[in-house]
Each structure stands twice: as C-alpha cells, then as structure tokens.
C-alpha cells in the first residue's frame, strides 16, 4: 500500500465485561509504512484491544475498519485473509517441523487464495508454489541458514523471527505483534528492531504491544498510551515520554 494510507481504523471501540469497561471509546488509526506502539500498565486493556481489532473478540459497541471496509464482528480467519496478520504473546510454532515447513503451513492455513477448502490435499503445483513462497519469506527475515532446522532447535529470538515470517506468508498489509521483544536478549532485540524497520520501510503497517520501553522508544514512529481502558496520550515517542498523564499512569500505579 502507498505509505501514509490508512490501513486500520478503530472508531469508539468499547468492550465491556460485565461492569468492567476494558476498552472505553478507543479511537486508533494505523497507516501503511508506520510502526505504532500500544502501551500502558498491566490491565490497561491492550490485549483486549488487539482482540477487537483482529476479530478474536467482538466490541460491545464501536467500529473497526480495515482498508476502509467494516470488519467489526467478522471472524479472525476472515480478517486474516483480508490481510491482517497477528502474532501471539507466546510462541506457537510446530517445534518438530522445519523452519520452512512452519512458514509453509502458515501460508497454507492463512492464505488468501482459497486453498483452505482443499485442506491438506494439495496438488504438486500448489505445494511447490507454497514452498517457494515460504522460502521467500524465510529469506526475507534472514533465517535462510536455518531453513531446514527444526523450529524447536532455534533460539527464542529466531523463533520470534520465524513467527513473523509465518505471519508474512499470508501477504498481510498489517502486522499485529503482541510483545515481540519479551524475553529476548539485547542482540536479539537489535536484530528484531532492524527487521521491523525493514518491513515498515517496505510499506507494512505494524501495530505492536510491548512492555520494553527502550525497545519501543528506539523503534516506533508513534505511540498510543492506554490506562483503565482509555486512551490517555498519543504522539511521538519523545512527546509521550514527557506527558504528565503518562508518567502518572506508570508511576502512580
Ligand atoms: P492488558 O493487556 O493491557 O494488560 P487486558 O486487555 O488483558 O489488559 O485486560 C484489561 C481488563 O479487562 C483487565 O481488568 C482484565 O482483567 C479484563 N479482562 C480481559 N479479558 C477479560 C475477559 N475475557 N473477561 C473478563 N474480564 C476480562
Ligand atoms: Mg495483555
């Protein structure tokens, strides 16, 4: 997509759980070619928001638009096929399958080309196409030296990178990443940040939830801060870090 184009828009998204308002009239916009961080203290409503955006859950009220089309209430698979790809907080790889196979399975299961209906009965041409696409994504994220290694044998940073390759296999225009830097060593974080910048510069829209503030502030273009289900600040990393409401939310506990 052309850089700057709106990819995802949340309008007044509200999610109640009984008396608790986990997301309260949240507005959010993500553009092609930007990395946006959604941050906030524990319990602020970040994961709930991710669930509303990716169709894992349905808002009590409000609307979500993906590339201009309403997707509120559509299932997560349908939304994934439109081009919204999500990684989860905990690694969900098949440890005894190779790096290449893990990505190929992602391409198969989340493909936009209707291969889902054929389940596992792929013809030779289709299988070759899937494998070529998967190999392309493995190279794109820099894991080509591990193409045929078991996913379970990789270091955590490489497993996270592999998850991103798998998310890329469905040719998304938006990546939602839930705590991609959690548990990574410094060198792994540096490599991850480099990969995300590369994808952004290719025009990908990236929305991430992340607790590691050094990682966030050095990487992202824009930050949205949540507390008690609401947006309390939005802006450039430097601005947001100095915002009194943000300092209060983090320190005032
Ligand atoms: P964060 O990801 O920012 O830490 P969450 O979105 O997980 O916050 O949670 C926001 C609030 O909503 C919390 O108070 C949490 O307990 C509550 N919550 C989240 N999911 C559910 C649910 N399925 N049922 C009831 N309450 C929930
Ligand atoms: Mg969470």
From TrEMBL:
<protein>
    <submittedName>
        <fullName>Branched-chain amino acid transport system permease protein</fullName>
    </submittedName>
</protein>
<feature type="domain" description="ABC transporter">
    <location>
        <begin position="8"/>
        <end position="253"/>
    </location>
</feature>
């Amino acid at each position: 997509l052309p850089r700057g184009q709106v990819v995802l828009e949340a309008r007044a998204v509200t999610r109640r759980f009984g008396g608790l308002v986990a997301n309260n009239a949240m507005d959010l916009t993500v553009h092609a070619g930007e990395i946006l961080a959604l941050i906030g203290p524990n319990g602020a409503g970040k994961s709930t928001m991710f669930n509303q955006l990716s169709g894992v859950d349905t808002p009590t009220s409000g609307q979500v638009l993906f590339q201009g089309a309403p997707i509120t209430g559509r299932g997560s698979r349908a939304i994934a096929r439109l081009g919204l790809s999500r990684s989860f907080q905990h690694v969900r790889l098949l440890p005894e399958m190779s790096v290449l196979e893990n990505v190929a399975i992602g391409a198969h299961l989340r493909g936009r080309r209707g291969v889902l209906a054929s389940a596992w009965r792929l013809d030779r041409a289709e299988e070759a196409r899937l494998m070529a696409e998967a190999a392309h994504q493995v190279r794109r994220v820099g894991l080509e030296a591990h193409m045929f290694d078991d996913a379970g044998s990789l270091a955590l940073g490489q497993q996270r990178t592999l998850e991103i390759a798998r998310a890329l296999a469905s040719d998304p225009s938006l990546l939602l990443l839930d705590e991609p830097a959690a548990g990574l060593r410094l060198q792994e974080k540096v490599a991850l940040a480099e990969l995300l910048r590369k994808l952004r510069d290719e025009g990908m829209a990236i929305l991430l939830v992340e607790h590691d503030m050094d990682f966030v502030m050095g990487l992202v273009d824009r930050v949205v801060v949540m507390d008690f289900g609401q947006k309390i600040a939005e802006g450039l990393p430097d601005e947001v870090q100095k915002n009194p409401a943000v300092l209060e939310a983090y320190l005032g506990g």
